[in-house]
Amino acid sequence: MSQWTHVSGIIRIDDFISVIEEDNHVEERIENIIAKINNIPTGSEGPLEYDIVRTRTDNEVCFGYIAVYGDLRDYENVDEIYDWFDSLRKELSNNQIDIRSLCVKIDVEFKDSYIIFDRNECLLLHKL
Fold it and tell me: What is the pLDDT of residues 88-108, one digit of tens each?
């Protein structure tokens, strides 16, 4: 029987720089940052997936969000998932892309559920 770990998360992105400098390449910047992080959690049938969604209209500070999701087969390393999200958070911040909020739910089948959330510029992992 396979072990599945289900991940669903959302990261709300605020991007002051692109509003000030009228930079329309935010999606490309985020895509490049994610590509730099080599340890994306991967099950036997593939890695976590993500969508970058722009919701901004006019000069709003909120750019949009990154949806991260996946069903990882034969994978149950919650610490690696946490580490990947923490690396992503740090790289976005280092590239002047601000995270307004981050929340991820992890369900390890037949075991435990966890939530990752941001607080005071750090990530917390909590067992539910």
Answer: 999 999 988 889 999 999 999
Q: For residues 79-111, b (16+ Cβ closer than 10 Å) or e, as one string?
A: eebbbbbbbbbebbeeeebebeebebebbbeee
CATH domain 4-127 topology = Alpha-Beta Plaits (3.30.70)
DSSP H helices in the chain: 16-21, 26-36, 78-94
**pTM listed for this prediction:** 0.91
Angle at 88 between CA 85 and CA 90, to 5 degrees: 110
In contact, 11 and 68? CB cutoff 8 Å: yes
Beta carbons of 40 and 85 less than 8 angstroms apart: no
Tell whether the model's pLDDT for residue 20 goes beyond 80. no
- Where exactly are the structural domains of the chain? 4-127
